[in-house]
Recover the amino acids of this structure.
């Protein structure tokens, strides 16, 4: 007698998600983090280092929108291993609230949101939106901590670089600390001119640029890492150009109109620098799904 065919194992049916559960979770997170969210919005508006902050969630939302068809086609099932990650984020937020330090709550919110996505829809969906969620870290205002640690060294570096660059192109300069003197006037490299603001903004732009190109992961990491020296080079070039304008046209031109638009100059120089690095790495082709 032939052996009886064994019945194929029946795969368990994924536990269905109640349509109102994601809404409930979203409202609960908003209530839990509302004080931090209000503080973050205020920082975006007032903190000169995080004027780009409002653009970060817009970029993240756009990336999710562009991938929405793919995201909705992925298999969805609740994955309970997301709950420990959610609990970790909430614990970090509770600790930050207890010690009255705001910026850790930004990272806690990202961890909590990612854990909730894994719990509600599973790993495939979480993996698909991992970058736009992680990208939100560039909107977390931590400038004061960075200013205390890095602003003065960067201030001195920018003064040295700007003075050396100006001297190399024929402008007679002398430097004492962060003060650069030319025959016409003395230019003081202030904290806000240290390049830290450019580094913070260009790091966010570099991460986005590295995500958008078609390239191996190691090239993307190199491109992202290059955003820091590119930002410092652009900021030093701005200082040198200020000295050149002061030499030719006088202090009013150098510290007047040009000082007002110099932030745009730094951005354009840094953006060109990123494209040059991408070209050297042969990362010129952009992803078609962005």
């Amino acid at each position: 007698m032939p052996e009886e065919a064994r019945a194929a194992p029946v795969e368990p049916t994924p536990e269905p998600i109640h349509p109102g559960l994601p809404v409930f979770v979203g409202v609960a997170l908003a209530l839990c983090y509302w004080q931090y969210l209000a503080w973050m919005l205020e920082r975006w508006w007032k903190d000169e280092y995080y004027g780009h902050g409002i653009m970060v969630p817009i970029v993240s939302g756009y990336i999710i929108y562009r991938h929405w068809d793919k995201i909705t086609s992925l298999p969805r099932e609740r994955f309970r291993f997301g709950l420990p990650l959610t609990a970790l984020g909430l614990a970090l937020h509770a600790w930050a609230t207890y010690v009255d330090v705001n910026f850790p709550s930004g990272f806690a919110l990202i961890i909590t949101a990612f854990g909730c996505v894994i719990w509600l829809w599973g790993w495939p969906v979480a993996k698909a939106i991992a970058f736009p969620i992680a990208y939100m870290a560039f909107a977390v205002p931590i400038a004061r901590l960075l200013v205390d640690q890095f602003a003065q060294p960067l201030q001195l570096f920018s003064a040295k670089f700007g003075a050396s660059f100006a001297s190399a192109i024929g402008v007679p300069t002398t430097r004492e600390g962060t003060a650069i003197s030319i025959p016409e006037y003395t230019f003081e490299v202030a904290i806000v001119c240290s390049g830290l603001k450019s580094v913070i903004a260009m790091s966010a732009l570099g991460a986005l640029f590295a995500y958008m190109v078609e390239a191996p992961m190691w090239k993307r990491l190199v491109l992202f890492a290059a955003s820091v020296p590119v930002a410092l080079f652009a900021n030093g070039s701005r200082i040198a150009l200020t000295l050149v304008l002061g030499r030719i046209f006088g202090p009013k031109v150098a510290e007047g109109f040009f000082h007002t638009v110099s932030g745009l100059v730094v951005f354009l120089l840094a953006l060109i620098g990123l494209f040059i690095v991408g070209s050297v790495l042969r990362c010129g082709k952009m992803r078609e799904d962005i």
About this structure: The chain has two domains: 20-141, 149-280. The beta strands are 174-176, 179-181, 186-188. The first strand starts at residue 174 and ends at 176. The CA atoms of residues 217 and 247 lie 45 Å apart.
